[in-house]
Amino acid sequence: MSRAHVVLLTRLVTLSYCSTVTARTFTLITFDVDGTLVKGSGQASDASAHARAFAHAVGAILGNGSPTPLPAEVIPRESYHGSTDGLISLRLAKVVLGVQPDEAAPQLPAIFESMYHYCAELSDDEMTRGIELLPGVLETLRTLAARDDVICGLVTGNVEGIARKKMRAVGIMATGALARAAEEQTWAGEDDCAFLGGFGSDFCSADLSDPARNHLDRGEQIAIAVRRCLTLLPEGATLARVVHVGDAPSDILAAKYCADAARVPPGTIVGCVGVATGSYTAETLAKLCGEPRPGVWEPVVLERGLADPCFVQACGV
């Protein structure tokens, strides 16, 4: 074989390799936390460190410095479960202190910081008192961590720093499943366990008059996680699918909103895995999913959540 043929063959192999690399596609899987990865145990959950952080921060920033009642004591459960830390804080301020959302909303960054610092002073054991991992979570996350076509992160109503502390405390960070944080994630605190996601501290509409904001705000958090994920992809790679995993109606409706409102890149499929491991039945979640639209909206509901042997397949990977 002549030198010219060797050079040509080398170039063809290189081009073929580059085409393979640039053709890589990824799936982003985002997880809700409470009811999806961890569960609370009754009254202990309602009085968890996270719950106490609301009372501490709202009282400190908007009140007289004394903690308010806990959210579960004064806010209807349907307005609390599946909501975001921002909306919960505003509801708490309105119900307990009479502070209206338009007055309280500018103070949300200070409230988030106060919530985080309250939790940061606690040990990991204290942080996880009243909550525990759901079955199958660690095993499934380790399986996903071993894949090179999947990027995992969180989409949660939690303040980012609190989510980081929770994930370390319950052992989820140690699975290696959660992708590194994007450069735009600048939360200061728990920096050793920063990871990709969209958080309650990233977006809050401050609209308490529209019940749909529970899921629309979460939909914006999914969109934020998608935007951040795109910055982590290798050059030339594409995001083929975004799958949100959650246990609440707001999770299902948020993912559906992202599909309906084209809140993902063109051609990206939106999937959702509703998990009946929280407060809602599989039947309730399935009704909210509506009809699938192949290539656009592909929801699945699993009774056993991440413990289901078909979970990874349900994510479309």
UniProtKB/TrEMBL annotation:
One annotated GO molecular function is:
hydrolase activity
Q: What name has this protein been given in UniProt?
A: Halo-acid dehalogenase-like hydrolase
- Recorded source organism is Chrysochromulina tobinii
Please list which residues make up the signal peptide: 1-23
InterPro entries, from UniProt?
A: HAD-like_sf, HAD_sf, PGP-like_dom2
Swiss-Prot/TrEMBL keywords: Hydrolase, Signal
Pfam families annotated for this entry?
Hydrolase (PF00702)
